[in-house]
């Protein structure tokens, strides 16, 4: 089953969302543990940071999908 986690999906938006979902589950557990240990400030800071990162990733994903719908098949960052 371990090899299943390395399957590369065909669309770039799925490639972004799969690891993001897994990371969100892990960070939610870490934030809950920090809050449970009495580290409320750490939990709040981590929550703000993660919400910022997820917002940026969502916008990036939308921008990539919009570019693909316009017929642009190049991957951002590639020098073609």
Sheet with most strands:
none
End-to-end Cα distance = 36 Å
**Percent helix range:** 55-70%
Average pLDDT, all residues: 76
**Number of contiguous helices:** 2
**Structural class category:** mainly alpha
Tally of structural domains = 1
Number of strands: 0
Computed over alpha carbons, the radius of gyration is 16 Å
Name the beta content range.
under 5%
Encode the helix/strand succession as letters.
HH
Envelope shape: elongated
**Which parts are unreliable, with pLDDT below 50 for 5 consecutive residues or more?**
1-5
Per-chain topology:
Elements: H1 12-36, H2 40-69
Helix pairs in contact: 1-2
Structure in words:
The chain is mostly helical and 80 residues long. The chain has one domain (12-69). It has two helices and no strands. The longest helix has 30 residues, at 40-69.
């Amino acid at each position: 089953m371990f090899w299943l986690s390395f399957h590369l999906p065909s669309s770039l938006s799925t490639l972004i969302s799969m690891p993001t979902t897994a990371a969100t589950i892990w960070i939610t557990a870490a934030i809950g543990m920090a809050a449970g240990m009495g580290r409320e400030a750490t939990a709040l800071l981590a929550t703000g940071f993660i919400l910022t990162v997820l917002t940026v990733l969502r916008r990036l994903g939308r921008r990539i999908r919009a570019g693909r719908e316009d017929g642009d098949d190049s991957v951002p960052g590639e020098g073609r």
